[in-house]
Amino acid sequence: MASKPLNNIWIRRQQCPCGDWKCYIRLDGDESTTTTYNNATKSEIEPSTTPSPSPSSSSPLFTPYVGQIFRTDDEAFEYYTAFARRNGFSIRKARSTESQNLGVYRRDFVCYRSGFNQPRKKANVEHPRERKSVRCGCDAKLYLSKEIVAANGATQWYVSQFSNVHNHVLLEDEHVRLLPAYRKIQQCDQERILLLSKAGFPVNRIVKLLELERGGGGVELPFIEKDVRNFVRACKKSVQESDALLNERRESDLMELLESCKVFVGERGDVGFVYEFTSDESGRVESLAWAYGECVQGYSVFGDVVVFDTSYRSVTYGLILGVFFGMDGNGNAVLLGCVLLQDESCRSFAWALQTFVRFMRGGHPQTIVTDIDRGLKDAVERELPNTNHVVFMWHVVSKLGSWFSQTLGSHYDEFRAGFEMLCRAGSVEEFEQQWDLLISRFGLVPDRHAALLYSCRATWSPCYIRQHFLAQTMTPEFSLSIDSFLKRIVAGPSCMQALLEEVSVAASLSKQITPRVPYPSMKTCMPMEDHARAVLTPYAFSVLQNEMVLSLQYAVAEMANGPHIVHHFKKMERECCVFWNPENEEIHCSCKEFEHSGILCRHSLRVLAVKNCFHIPEQYFLVRWRQESSLVSEENQNGMGIGDDDCVQTFQSLTETLLTESMVSKDRLDYTNQELSALIDRVRNVAPANTCISHDC
Ligand SMILES: [Zn+2]
Ligand SMILES: [Zn+2]
Ligand SMILES: [Zn+2]
User: Fold this and answer.
1) Count of structural domains, the chain
2) 118 CA distance to ligand 2 middle (Å)
3) Average pLDDT in the 224-243 region?
């Protein structure tokens, strides 16, 4: 049966690693993330497509006036929506008028109670629940007209009529947020709702539960029971009809995905492309893993630290998306492999790791970085026994609120401060001691989340992971780089068959949009700096250069028996002990920075300088940070600019002139703004020379 592929819906996993399915994680900052439902299902699922700006938005909001100018009609709508929300009503789009030359040239926005309800058509007369309409003929409105403002046809919108006179009572904030236009189920609540609904909870109990989780009272939820009901129904509908049919579709879609794997090797000519899958006794695909030719190449240089991200799940297919990343010499995330797993069991994760290692020709990474997950932890221990397992600190910190803020109430902030202190513990003994104190002080001895954290402390606590090699993966920039990569995958036009293409495009895109960082200018007169500049990538060089600059603030004292004690000239910090062996040019510092990040520390650099060593010993330039290891091809580099420095300078001087000229008057400034936005759009449409991005899906 040739059927239209299912709409693949990705959501962020929120199950709590404690194992209790009723417990879930609300990520800090999730409120602002946009939903990953793609356009086709968006309008069905969201209670309203109206943008609902937060009422606490800090921009000053003036009453609209006749003659007010907007760049676009959408901008005007957003503005009026925000104004309405603060003033106790909502708006809707009414009439628009269109002409051949101008397109839409007039738009009317009106108060939600404008007009009168149409008498129901005959067929609906017997409808048992005749609802009372809120429409009462209110005349509050904002009408917009479009005008041409420049010879090139550029247009703008102005307010042609405005009235804020209402013939009804305006609502208080606690009621206004319940108007349909402002109600919205945020992404962070969506999975929770689906999960509870799947577990058989009726909608009214789901709402009660969500209220309780937010501290009760009912006033906190940005949606009402009806929205939840609609949402659940729309999801069911978008995932379509009966389970039997759905399973059949899932099966055929996954088979097709498998087919596209074959195509990748054959027609697409990616000879290095590899894939493997597992199937159950009736031949149905369970899990699938794949890697592109480039991944294997990347792993050979950057496979020392691997990040295994498992934060997204497909609602449609019930599959977990796992993505393996490495960090390249420029500090960016590079794709190393992908898996789709049927569940998050230890068995599935173990298969993922085994397969990944096979793809990468048997090499185990030194360090693997993941989220907290029991199944994953066991799988890593089993499959990669000699690999260090690390959990990103932000995976821990982002869960603290969900775990402890309700239990601790007003003491939570104090707890957070204590936790941060704990993370600064200098040794394992110190950590253990502080942990006991913290847990007993806040009465968390029997708490299951505290127990979970403690049981995996060796993977996240800085004093434990200090000894593991992590390159520069612990930086916020690197997390962001992974995050935007994943968002590109899940936001794409997503049917399962396009996933290989999708991921491959995201991988090549991330290479292109990565700005080529120019080398920073020289900051010290140390010959070591010249040496490093000649060998390292700009990124690695800038990290090392920073250490060099700071090294100048350190004093060195040589002990009789060999080691050098290095300390800051005034800050009270722990002293470092540096061993230098001029024969084999080996240098070791007690801070372990080189072992941890692959970049020499300021203390070692200081000792080298004091010992009249004017170059950096070769073994301290790791292959992964060297220019020759960069994966960016020559062709690609040439495509980026004609002599980077010249190009940048020309740009800077042009923009400076533009700014000076534009600041002369408001008209000029507006004009520049408008033209620049258009220009940026046009530039984005120019395809990079060496890629062809197409979706036939
Ligand atoms: Zn939990
Ligand atoms: Zn009104
Ligand atoms: Zn050091």
Assistant:
1) 5
2) 18
3) 75
Residue 153's region, left for phi above 0, alpha for psi from -120 to 50, else beta, is left
Q: Residue 305 belongs to what domain range?
A: 245-392+474-509
pLDDT-derived band at 1, boundaries 50, 70, 90: very low
Neighbours of ion ligand 3 (CB under 5 A): 576, 589, 591, 601, 603
Asked if the structure places residue 580 within a domain, the reply is: yes
How many A from CA of 577 to the centre of ligand 3?
8
How far, in Å, is the centroid of ligand 2 from the Cα of 143? Answer: 15
* Mean pLDDT of all residues in 321-332: 93
- CATH assignment of the domain containing 281: 3.30.420
Strand (E) positions, 190-301?
Answer: 274-279, 285-291
Using the mean position of ligand 1's atoms as its centre, give its distance from the Cα of residue 478 in Å: 27
pLDDT(97) > 70? yes
Place of tokens 């939840």: 228
Q: Are residues 173 and 43 in the same domain?
A: yes
CA of 452 to the centre of ligand 1 (A): 9
- How remote is the CA of residue 481 from the centroid of ligand 1, in Å? 28
Please check whether residues 312 and 408 belong to one and the same domain: no
Question: C-alpha angle 250/252/256, rounded to 5°?
Answer: 115
CB 239 within 8 A of CB 246: yes
Tens of pLDDT, residues 646-695: 555 666 667 777 887 888 888 888 888 888 888 877 777 776 554 433 44
Q: What is the 3-state secondary structure (H, E, C) of 17-39?
A: CCCCCCCECCCCCHHHCCCCCCH
Longest CA–CA span in the chain (Å) reads: 102
Q: Do 321 and 430 fall within a single domain?
A: no
Distances (CA, A) of 375 to 32, 44, 266, 348, 453: 30, 35, 36, 9, 15
CA of 606 to the centre of ligand 3 (A): 9
Helix runs in 573-665, H state only: 593-597, 602-610, 634-640, 644-662
In a domain, 612, yes or no: yes
* DSSP state for residue 16 in the 8-state scheme: -
Residue 695 maps to a domain: no
Q: Which residues of 308-318 are buried (b: 16+ CB within 10 A; e: fewer)?
A: bbbbbbbbbbe
Residue pair 557/577 in contact (Cβ under 8 Å)? The answer is: no
Instruction: Report the separation in Å between the CA atom of 330 and the middle of ligand 3, taken as the mean of its atom positions.
Output: 23
What does the chain come to in residues? Answer: 697
Q: Identify whether the C-beta of residue 308 lies closer than 8 Å to the C-beta of residue 357.
A: no
Ligand nearest to the CA of 171: 2
Q: Is the pLDDT of residue 303 over 90?
A: yes
Q: How far is the CA of 396 from the centre of ligand 1 (A)?
A: 12
Whether 19 is in a domain gets the answer yes
Query: Which ligand lies nearest the alpha carbon of 399?
Result: 1
CA of 168 to the centre of ligand 2 (A): 6
